[in-house]
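job 3f2a | input accepted
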Amino acid sequence: MKPSTELFELIKSLSKSEKRFFKLSSSLQTGDKNYLKIFDAIEKQAVYNEAALKIAFKKETFVSHFPSEKNHLYKLILKSLRNYHSDNSINSVLKQEIKNVEILYKKALFKECNKFLIRAKKQAIENEKFYFLFELISWEKLLLEEAFEDGQFNADAYMHATRLWTITLETSVLYSKINYVFRSEGFSRNAEDIRIVKEIEDHPLIKGKNTALSDRAATICYYTQGFCAMANSRTDVALLKFNRVKEILDGRPKLKTDLAKRYVKTLSNIIGSHIDLGLYDEAWRFIDGLKDLTNESGFNSIDIQVNVFKTTTDIGASTVDEMW
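job 3f2a | predicted structure (324 res):
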């Protein structure tokens, strides 16, 4: 049976800072650290070669149970990544805050519980994390039922949070569908792809005005509209839609970081649209902006490879100018 390459792929996906964090964390542990030997050996490989690893470790006792050692290392790396990103992700922060709310509620420390609840709700609203907002309002309802404070449960706020979450979920499904249609080989214009695009294009959340209710959902709607325009060979309209996504995210730095991959894809589509329209200077300007993202927080863990082709119109030839 062919050896699994999952560990190799995980190690190769790590950024320099993630690797450094993993090794620093490992240095604090006691006992045998066979996993570090395996980590270092795999890290040096360009292509995974388990046979070569077993030969290199033939004098080590752990080689007799190599699969379990690989599995152990895989779990340790994932644990390290969870710790490394725990302070960087708003999702992680909100999960911890909700856990604090739950613990304090179970201990009947309602005043302290409410403090965490108020803080977490503010963060969820600011970052448009409506699933968490929905859950936090549910905890708020429980606190009121315990007569922690006088007042009535705000049913309107609860229903609004539910609606926001539902719209975000529905638009996310549409986003996934349009990305599927425009998979790596591009829009193929076969009957099935055309049908899916038409179905998405006519969806009330995409076709209607002011249906998104949040910036997060709005970026999905405009992004999806951009792809639908591309499918209909309306590159100028697609460019307008993708630029609108960029404008929204540029105006919401926290949301931009949270939706880093969407932002990168949007820039890539803007560049492609400019090239299709023959606006090469504009394309290069956005390419420079794409490069600058590697220095921004939240973007250094995204693998980006852009092949840039500069057209030499005066001689009618295309030459590779740069690869980044």
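job 3f2a | DSSP finds 16 helices and two strands in the chain.
job 3f2a | closed
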